[in-house]
DNA sequence: ACCTATGTTGATAC
DNA sequence: GGTATCAACATAGG
């Protein structure tokens, strides 16, 4: 679920529902999700503080605190942020903050691939996929021999594009996921960036990458929603990929 | 019951 | 350095 659009919604949820409330305690007992911290470390660092601002770059989020450390949050493959909800069963709330006012904020994740850490390191992250400028996009994406889709999903190249958004964007742009990234013309790269921004913005406003136009056809036997041709299905960049061989060259 | 598939990242190997 | 593969976690579905 969580690609850039979902993470942006999660960030907004923290901003709207989690700021300026005194932190009474933190449940950081999941040593996998909170690695490399020991249980109690995040708790003692955040207790008594308040969250003051929520930021995002790509799929990475971080929250500032008043005079305290920065809290990094990542949704992994199935995480989401909930505020003021009762604890989920089966310990699905892998990390949570209890506020002094009785409310709470939780990182809910069945699969435990999400992360909560203090002072997160985002130095290996490229510019945000929705913010990257034209020239930067050209030089960062338009190189190498890796398939275009793999390049788009490389978080150190640009941050935020996952499997579904990559397929949707390439389908919108009419570009094959298999094209060696370095072989794209500047015009193609500019067009790709334009479609990436459009697909991303649209997904944010509509609620997530699952609202894309290609999604409904993205299964075995699916047809291109535009031209009706059978979609091709292959593993590209390590992920299941669907595309229209008629329109995406 | 068993097998496959799943939005993520990171470590590892070539 | 760039690229590819597998493992980490846990669930859902055929």
Q: Could you describe the 3D structure shown?
A:
This protein has 249 residues and is α+β, with helices and mostly antiparallel strands. 27% of the residues lie in helices and 22% in strands. Strands 1-6-7-5 form a four-stranded antiparallel sheet. It has a four-stranded antiparallel sheet with strand order 2-3-4-8, with helices on one face. Strand 2 and strand 3 form a beta hairpin. Helix 1 crosses helix 6 (186-206) and helix 5 crosses helix 6. The protein binds a DNA duplex (14 and 14 nucleotides) through residues 1-3, 6, 32, 59, 74-79, 109-115, 144-146, 150, 155, 162-165, 208-210, 237-240.
Features of the shown structure:
249 residues, alpha+beta, four-stranded antiparallel sheet, DNA-binding
């Amino acid at each position: 679920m969580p690609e850039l659009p979902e993470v942006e919604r999660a960030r907004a949820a923290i901003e709207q529902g989690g700021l300026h409330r005194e932190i009474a305690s933190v449940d950081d007992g999941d040593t996998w999700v909170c690695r490399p911290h020991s249980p109690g470390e995040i708790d003692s660092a955040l207790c008594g503080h308040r969250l003051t601002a929520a930021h995002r770059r790509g799929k990475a989020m971080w929250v500032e605190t008043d005079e305290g450390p920065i809290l990094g949050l990542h949704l992994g493959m199935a995480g989401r942020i909930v505020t003021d909800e009762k604890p989920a069963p089966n310990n699905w709330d892998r990390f949570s903050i209890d506020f002094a006012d009785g409310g709470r904020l939780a990182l809910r994740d069945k699969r435990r691939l999400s992360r909560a850490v203090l002072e997160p390191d985002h130095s290996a992250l490229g510019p945000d996929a929705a913010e990257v400028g034209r020239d930067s996009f050209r030089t960062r994406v338009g190189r190498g021999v890796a398939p275009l889709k793999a390049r788009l999903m490389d978080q150190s190249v640009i941050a935020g594009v996952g499997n579904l958004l990559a397929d949707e964007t390439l389908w919108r742009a009419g570009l094959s996921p298999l094209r060696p990234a370095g072989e794209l013309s500047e015009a193609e790269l500019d067009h790709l960036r334009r479609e990436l921004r459009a697909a991303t913005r649209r997904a944010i406003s509509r609620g997530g990458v699952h609202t894309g136009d290609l999604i409904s056809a993205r299964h075995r036997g699916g047809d291109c929603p535009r031209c009706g041709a059978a979609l091709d299905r292959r593993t590209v960049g390590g992920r299941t990929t669907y595309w229209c061989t008629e329109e995406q060259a």
